[in-house]
Amino acid sequence: MYKDLTDQDYKEMLSLPPDYKVAGFLSYGHWNLSRKAENMKKALSKLDGDFQIKQLSEFLGRVYEIKTSKCTYWFTVVYGGVRLCEYLHFACLFGSKKNIHIGSCGGLCPQMESLDYIIPEWSFGNESTTRSYDRDNQENIHYPDQELSNEIKRELGNQNYWKGPIMTCEAMVAETKEDIDRWTQEGYYGVEMETSTIFAISNHFEVPSASLLYVSDNLVKGQVVGDEEHKKQKKDRWAKSQEMIDIGIRVLFS
Question: Which domains does the chain have, with CATH numbers?
């Protein structure tokens, strides 16, 4: 079965050279690939060094390959866990040493404001993209690597951030007011669609992983995507997105 296929099997399937290596993996949870790719290129322009950037093709068409003089990294933009699961599985097989996820979430903590940062302490995920990689985990709780999370914390500098648990739910448009109230009462800080997948697969392959999120739609305060308050924050979210990719790239290369 597919789980038994080797790195060489997948390299042949994906038309990659036999000696192809991935040094690190950075994903952004969003639907707009081209916009986040421009953010990524802008982040690289702020760093010293020469970078070769190439969008891969076919099945890997949402992956950007970033080559330095010594290493190859993957950057991708994903919406939910399915494609992320397979990209990350490949990256781990191909030698990734660190896996980082950045993105937005719906706010669940009453004390938090829109655009606040969250560094997840752990994430609850009961999806096939988590269960299949952590079959003995009855609690469905998935943890990041503490040292890599601390690297993100250091890159934030003096900026304020929250640290707490995250709920992963891939059915955003099926979320109810009762769901939001229950998750808030259970102590979750935010809800999003990818972090548990990153943690579960990375832990399966024994690769350090971490996540950095910001509050986009502050659900606990009644804000949803597309309402007037959310629309007013559009430029602030764009700026936050660039800042997060700047941070993610620096941690990826560190």
Answer: 2-253 (3.40.50.1580)
